[in-house]
Amino acid sequence: MSTPIRERLRIRPGFALAACAAAGMLLTGLPALQGDADAAPGPGRRCDEKWLGRTYDTPVAGSGIKGKNQPYSVNPDKERGSYPVDNPAHAFDGLKAPSAAQQKLAGDTTADIEKWKAKYEQSKNTKYRVLEYYARYGNHLRTSGKPTRDFSRYMDRWIIGNEVNRVKGDSFERKIVKDFKLVGPDWICQKEVPVRGKDGKPVVDKDGKPVVRRYDAYNARTREFVEFKSNGKHIARQFGYDRLVLRDPQWRDHSLRLITGEKTTSNTVKQFDALNRQLANERGKPGSTPVTIREQRNTPAPRWRPNQYTRYDKVFNPDPRRAGTLGPINDAAWRSGDTPDQARQVQRQYQGANTRGGLGRGPGGVDFTTLELSYVGNPVKGKALDYSFKADYVKDEEANPGWGGKAKLQLASDAFFTWLALSPDKFWVNLNPDQPDRIMDNAFAKTDAGRTLLEADLAMKHDFAAAINPDKHPSARTFWDNAPRRAGLPCFPETRLWIEPKTAKVREQDGGIYILDAPLKVSAEWMDVEWHPPGARVCDLTDPEKRTSERLLRQHVMPEVEKRVNTSPGYADLRRVYASRVAAEWTRQQDAKKPTDFRSIINSNDASRWPLRGENANWSKHETYERYMKSGREGVEWFKLEYGGQVYNQGVGGVDFSKSPKRNITKTQFTVEKPRLDTTTKTSVHAETSYRDTETAYLGGNGSGPEQGDGNPTPSPTPTPTGTGGPTPTGSGEPTPAPTGTGGPDPTPTGTGGPSSTPTDSGGPTPAPTGTGGTDPTLPPTSGPKDPGGGLADTGSSAPVGLIAGIAAALAAAGAALTWWVRRRRNGGTG
After folding, report:
1. Annotated domain spans of the chain
2. Where would one find the signal peptide in this protein (predicted)?
């Protein structure tokens, strides 16, 4: 008799992708063999015993599948969390590629792989695990039609990622059994059911063996089959079997419950909805729910113990003597491509290995252009600093995956340290045609934060030129029609423009600070400028006329510019460094109260650890200033104005954070406006997660890790550096692993602030924190001082400078909006 083929609990990577491609496939026409029509389910194992390690004699209160009376339901926010997934291979993500000698020692056959694997299992010595991975790599290069030759990518996709895939399903199943209390003698896991066709004969596979459908859980009393999927989609092959089982007379009174751990795909919902209606009608019970989906969102949190082969990044690491930081944001940034083309290539490679992120997305699932720091924890001396970022998910990760994660993460970290390292009197930038020698402080000009501010200033002036174009914006026409005039002609406003914060919202809680909203506004005021481009028409306006021009400008032109600053991708870096500014100022406050690991950095005026990087390494403030002046001489926006029978060609050629109005956020308001954000943030430090039902990702990290040479256990025998990493062949033929280094570039600080022509004062005392406060009512209360208000305290300034009230002289940047007029009459004559 043929041996039944068992449905595996989890299918192997690669096979899942092929199976999913066959969505909607019906299996009723498969060849069949004669079999026992009364076959009963195969033996399984009690769920409580299998997953919880104990047995319950009777069912417990609240036991059962949630949402069984709804075709599709989602668990509420308060039930969402994370579940641990053991991923010991992650500890080797910094392992370097093998040398030729190391690869020769490791070998490249299946026998070599099994040999080193057995040695590791016996000794637990990491040198054998390294050799196993090298043997697997060699085997991959030898046998794969399209091998991954980048060893780091190979480790991430084929070793680390596949390990998560293998164990994530079991971990999710354990959590659901616990959460839904599937205990007692009625709940059996891994129950097997033979699959029969319409004719009652067993369905067979391509080898002629009877197919057996294995369900993750089964309850004979409630007549429920249950399938757990840690991701959000069904497998077409299994779904075809389910259709046959549920229409089999023996199981015609049974139901199927699909439990997903992520947002369920629309195709899965569609397929289950159709089957639900079909079965309900066939069974003569319209409106019943024999097939349901319960979306039980939870985030897998990989865990591992770092060793000498672990990759650390230098972002948010205040002490260069320490290893660095770890976390899902570090991993996601490292996995992303550096360019759009590279990102698409990487995405295809990961898809081929079926190695996807914690939420079922590949390395291109995060839109890194929207990445902003959203939380930093309490900077306690000698302890790890928690941090969390938020970002949108891309709409189509296959066609247009996210890219540039490393650069964006580095910029946010560099900005954070720049705000700490440089004293506030250096936080200014200035594009002013009358002051070519006062563009920005020289130290600030050597940082990416300074570069970001000056480039944003120039971009804002160009956007102002577009916003005042009446051909593009009707409100601009209103400005020109009502502007002060000379000789019947409207006068262009000689205006200082700069960006500054609107009222921002923060919440200090749980020993850290949540950056909830930090919008920016574009301000304008009249400013007399001596330099004018050739051909410019200059109006000598009275003070009332200047005020009128300002008012009209603010009312009809600046809203469009402000919208761009707050939403345009071109200002994403500016918004990114401002979020880091908020976090850095709070860190300053904590250090002022009690020394932290950041004490030696704050106001040191040494930003050499965080220089200009990458393609901007040779950036010059003078080059940006020259582009500014060129736009003034040549114009960046041309349009025609017609007044009094004459036609005029008009050409039209910045950032201040010294004031940050604050809106205190109370614990109640925080809970109402951002429910469960604290829980989401805590989860994000260890695992990628999403906030509620939004398409917003939260990814974090922590650490600065153990000091080098202290607290980092070294396996025996002692590693010997080789320059290439990995094990080194010795005279005895035994490898000696070598450390791989910490990995990751150094973070560079950035800065903000500054006036148009001279630096402002340092801003007064730093605000004091308001306490922790704020807990999930479903969880035990946490210790700590009571919350008095929720926001950052005022600094004593007479102005409500708020949020980061102590922020001194700003991201500044005045600079006139350059313009000139070329007047000519309608008949073509010159004026």
Report:
1. 5-84+168-299, 427-663+749-825
2. 1-18
